[in-house]
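2024-03-11 09:14:02 INFO worker-7 job=invfold-0412 stage=load source=structure_tokens
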């Protein structure tokens, strides 16, 4: 635990002040836990709150993607239902016309018409026409029955999609509440600190990030990544796309983090990475968890500029590696798109959009 030095006579007063400042936050904790009494504990609580908010943001974004997909599916089903209803109307009309024509013709079988006619050869022609008419009528009736069945299935599918759409909307609303609750708690924690305490808290955050990155550097993985980067063919198509993604992310530096945002004025972490690669001509999943699950994984020591670094054991944060041990990311609420050490958070792994597997 990192403790901020204090004058001996001020330790108790500072602890009491911090505990009082966090009273409002204690009303909606993520889980029951002792009240923080040091800036290190405050920092850890804020990190936990923002981590929970980021996890909920990923779920919120994923629900949004599902809602978009289901709306598209519903529009397609509606078009299919409309087309099938039109066909059903046409077939129903045709079946009615066929039935009326048979009625007007007396409904006699071809064999009876052959016996009653005075012209056997003409009767044979009539018999052939009658058989063709019967076959055509049967085809119309079969098509009519099949179309009715198809329409019922399409309507049932549309109803299922609509129910699932409503469910996803409820889930998304629940995730929104979770995000807003966690962010409000974290912001309240920071807002109740004195200016001096906020400055020391920011210093503690930078110190922890630097320590985490330094430990990562000591593993030697960054040296290997640098060598892999230098050996990479500068003209490769994938590397060119990565450079375009970096150029896009660089243009977003200084823009604020807003959960659920994907530009052009605000971003969350995966909103930034997905839009950067889309600008490079490669569509990738919207959320960091889906980016980790679906994109091609590469060893950390083989990463190169443009790759995505996935953080935390639950893949709740992502950045764009820009080389030289640095990355661009949208950190969290209250922060801005920035350049930071690539190893300043626990790395889960690296993925490469557009990779040929």
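2024-03-11 09:14:09 INFO worker-7 stage=emit residues=357
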């Amino acid at each position: 635990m990192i403790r901020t030095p204090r004058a001996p006579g001020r330790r108790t007063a500072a602890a009491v002040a911090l505990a009082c400042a966090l009273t409002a936050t204690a009303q909606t904790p993520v889980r029951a836990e002792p009240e923080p009494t040091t800036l290190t504990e405050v920092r850890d609580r804020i990190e936990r709150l923002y981590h929970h908010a980021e996890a909920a943001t990923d779920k919120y974004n994923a629900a949004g993607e599902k809602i978009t997909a289901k709306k598209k599916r519903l529009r397609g089903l509606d078009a299919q239902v409309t087309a099938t209803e039109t066909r059903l109307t046409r077939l129903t009309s045709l079946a009615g016309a066929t039935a009326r024509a048979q009625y007007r013709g007396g409904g006699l079988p071809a064999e009876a018409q052959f016996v009653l006619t005075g012209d056997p050869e003409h009767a044979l022609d009539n018999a052939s026409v009658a058989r063709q008419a019967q076959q055509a009528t049967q085809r119309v009736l079969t098509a009519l029955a099949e179309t009715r069945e198809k329409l019922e299935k399409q309507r049932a599918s549309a109803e299922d999609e609509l129910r699932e759409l409503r469910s996803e909307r409820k889930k998304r609303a629940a995730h929104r509440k979770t995000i807003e609750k966690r962010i409000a708690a974290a912001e309240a924690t920071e807002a109740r600190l004195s200016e001096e305490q906020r400055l020391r808290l920011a210093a503690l955050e930078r110190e922890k990030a630097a320590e985490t990155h330094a430990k990562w550097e000591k593993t030697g993985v960054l040296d290997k990544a640098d060598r892999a980067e230098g050996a990479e063919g500068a003209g490769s198509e994938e590397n060119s796309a990565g450079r375009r993604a970096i150029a896009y992310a660089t243009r977003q530096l200084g823009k604020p983090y807003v959960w659920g945002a994907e530009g052009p004025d605000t971003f969350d972490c995966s909103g930034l990475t997905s839009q950067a690669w889309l600008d490079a001509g490669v569509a990738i999943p919207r959320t960091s968890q889906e980016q980790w699950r679906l994109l091609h994984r590469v060893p950390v020591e083989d990463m190169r500029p443009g790759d995505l670094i996935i953080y935390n054991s639950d893949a709740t944060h992502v950045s764009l590696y820009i080389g030289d041990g640095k990355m661009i990311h949208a950190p969290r609420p209250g922060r801005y798109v920035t350049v930071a050490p690539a190893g300043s958070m626990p790395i889960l792994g690296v993925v490469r959009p557009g990779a040929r597997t």
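2024-03-11 09:14:09 INFO worker-7 stage=report msg="Residues 23 and 149 are 63 Å apart (CA to CA)."
2024-03-11 09:14:10 INFO worker-7 job finished
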